[in-house]
Amino acid sequence: MSQLPLRAQLASALGRTAATLSRATGRGDGSVIGGRVGLMLEPDLLRQLAADRRLALVSATNGKTTTTRLITSALRQLGEVATNAFGANMPAGHVSALSSAKEAPYAVLEVDEKYLPEVLDTTQAGVVCLMNLSRDQMDRAGEIWLLAQKWRRALAAQSTLVIANCDDPLVAWAATGSARVTWVSAGQRWREDSWCCPECGGPLDRKGVDWACRECAFRRPTPSWVLDGEDVIDPRGQRWRLDLQLPGQANRANAAIALATVAAFGLEPGHALLGLREVTSVAGRYTTVERDGRSLRLLLAKNPAGWLEAFDVADPSLPIILSVNAQGPDGRDTSWLWDIDYRILRGRPVLVTGERSRDLALRLYVAGVPFQLCESFGQAVAVLPPGRIDVIANYTAFQQIRTEFGRAE
Ligand SMILES: [Zn+2]
User: Fold this and answer.
1) What distance in angstroms lies between residue 176's CA and the mean position of ligand 1's atoms?
2) What does the alpha-carbon distance between residue 354 and residue 324 come to, in Å, rounded to a whole number?
3) What pTM was estimated for this model as a whole?
4) Which of 333, 339, 359, 390 is catalytic?
5) Which residue intervals define the domain Mur ligase central in the entry (predicted)?
6) What tens digit of pLDDT does each residue of 12-66 get?
7) Residue 344 has what DSSP assignment?
8) Ion ligand 1, residues whose Cβ is below 5 A away
């Protein structure tokens, strides 16, 4: 790589010092504060750090942390990869990730949906992966459409290769702004935000994964990569068994996107899969923690689409603990809990905890799902007999459980 200008070198070094100090004083992993310090000293730092690297940006409502991890794990076979592994997915986090792996020829960055246009414009990334767009906490369909429109404009202004899920109409619409798209059929489980055509507002007709607008020419693009059950079919028609360690349909969808992405870097599926299969958990998700003879598997679900994915992974034969908070990162309004269909939980022991357990309890009561309300997570665990237990928690509830029961990884 070419040398960074002196000012950028200094900004980057001071940012790393700030991150080290932040870690040393117990204020988290320091990646955000370090990046902020760097950007304060050199506002152009992100662009300079991204230059001369082969960079992929990953954005979606759900699955971006996992997909970033899968792509990174595969690309490591080609060389060192800079990445924001801890989900610090705004520009300060990106500066920190790139700054701490300055010689890495590759970079894979998870990007917050709202920051994607800005980060793409700054970094001129060669590849952008887009998986899904749906309401997140208090967003509503209209706001999601506005976001898709911003993506579309940003992609139209660049020559970036876009790897996009053609089964999600909003993502497909955003990606058609770009002149270079590789379409992946990765499925779409949550459809409540895409009944209307993003182009004209008309109704979308759906049949299986296929969709088309009844009133204009906008329809599902033809994919070159297809997720088919446990397999991914590549553009040559060759079938690859995924055999991931990560569970569930949502992770197979993430893996299909990852395979198409690393192929753009010249990595064949046969090699890429070796990297994908090494990933066992992502920032604590899917981790199992042990307590008093109970094995608790932790599933993170931050929004309605995420809950559907977690239900898909949860074992119907096991008891389940649901924990919901409503702190800043969760969104204070819990009305999104009403968007989820909980009836799949009928027939298994359901325990409800978290700061907003009563909001969830009311929702379960209306859905006819029997449950037990618990004052704390520890109490919920103690109520259940020893054995395996699934846990679904939203963001801060998940972090609390990890802090109390698990270990950081
Ligand atoms: Zn239309």
Assistant:
1) 14
2) 5
3) 0.89
4) 333
5) 61-261
6) 888 888 777 777 666 666 778 888 888 888 888 999 999 999 999 999 999 999 9
7) G
8) 197, 199-200, 202, 213, 215-216, 218
